[in-house]
């Protein structure tokens, strides 16, 4: 999947196709798992997050969750800040989500740093194992492959109008960038079922060089997420053609 080497990145999009943005930290902790949810709620209660709500994964016994790689870092509780953000919490992970309408990174970053700073203050993280920043874009009524810097052919014939899924993984320093394109999907958007395309960009840092005991943990993790966001921006604006980007009113 070729990406244009020189990418012009706008300061912001007046509109954007984002369905959800999730910033996740995976960690190990010495705190008792049963005590974590109460300690986290006490530390973020004044940030307008509601009381924790159990997630379905809580019904699976801890011994089974711990042994399954797909369940180990799953969320057991969700805290909602209505119409703005949500927080997902498990014994080995914390994630700040921002659903539609998403404005820009400068709006999310201060809250993310505040949350991470408070969790660092209660000693939640003994060791940071990885971070992840994921952007899920939905293009309603549109085949994104017709507006992407991608050539898909089978036996010399274009297959962009067929039901297709494209995945690319690329390493950039300490980061793994994963791009997934699905051109014919049905998604729930603001409570309604809609058809279109998805562009999913996930930037993972598996070698996180931060010190959990350091009082600057939030700042250090903030820098990791800032670098992740820059990688995601280059991927998004390098992959999509100017005609589609112009639809979302870029400001340079």
Order of helices and strands: EEHEHEEEHEEEEEEHHE
Structural class: alpha+beta
The helicity comes to 25-40%
Rounded to the nearest angstrom, the distance between the terminal CA atoms is 26 Å
The amount of beta strand, in percent, is: 35-45%
Q: Any idea what the shape is?
A: globular
Using DSSP, what is the number of strands? 13
Indicate how many domains the architecture comprises. 1
Question: Can you describe this structure?
Answer:
- The protein has 252 residues and is α+β, with helices and mostly antiparallel strands.
- The protein has one domain: TATA-Binding Protein, CATH 3.30.310.
- It is 25% helix and 36% strand.
- It is built from five helices and 13 strands.
- It has helices at 33-44, 62-67, 105-121, 217-239, 242-247; strands at residues 12-13, 18-28, 53-54, 77-81, 85-90, 93-99, 127-140, 153-154, 157-158, 165-172, 175-189, 192-205, 250-251.
- It has a nine-stranded antiparallel sheet, with helices on one face. A two-stranded antiparallel sheet has the order 1-13.
């Amino acid at each position: 999947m070729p990406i244009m080497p020189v990418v012009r990145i706008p300061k912001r999009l007046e509109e954007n196709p984002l369905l959800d943005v999730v910033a996740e930290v995976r960690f190990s902790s010495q705190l008792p798992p049963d005590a974590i949810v109460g300690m986290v709620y006490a530390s973020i209660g004044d940030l307008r997050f509601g009381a924790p709500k159990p997630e379905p994964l809580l019904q699976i016994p801890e011994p089974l969750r711990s042994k399954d790689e797909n369940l180990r870092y799953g969320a057991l509780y969700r805290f909602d800040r209505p119409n703005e953000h949500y927080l997902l919490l498990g014994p080995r992970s914390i994630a700040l989500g921002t659903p539609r309408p998403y404005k820009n990174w400068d709006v999310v970053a201060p809250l993310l740093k505040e949350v991470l700073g408070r969790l660092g203050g209660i000693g939640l993280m003994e060791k940071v194992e990885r971070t992840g920043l994921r952007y899920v874009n939905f293009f309603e009524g549109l085949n994104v492959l017709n507006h992407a810097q991608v050539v898909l052919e089978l036996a010399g014939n274009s297959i962009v109008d067929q039901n297709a899924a494209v995945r690319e993984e690329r390493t950039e320093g300490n980061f793994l960038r994963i791009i997934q394109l699905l051109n014919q999907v049905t998604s729930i958007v603001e409570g309604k079922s809609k058809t279109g395309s998805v562009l999913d960009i996930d930037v993972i840092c598996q070698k996180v060089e931060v010190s959990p005991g350091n009082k600057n943990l939030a700042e250090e993790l903030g820098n990791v997420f800032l670098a992740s966001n820059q990688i995601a921006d280059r991927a998004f604006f390098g992959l999509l053609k100017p005609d589609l980007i112009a639809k979302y009113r870029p400001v340079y």
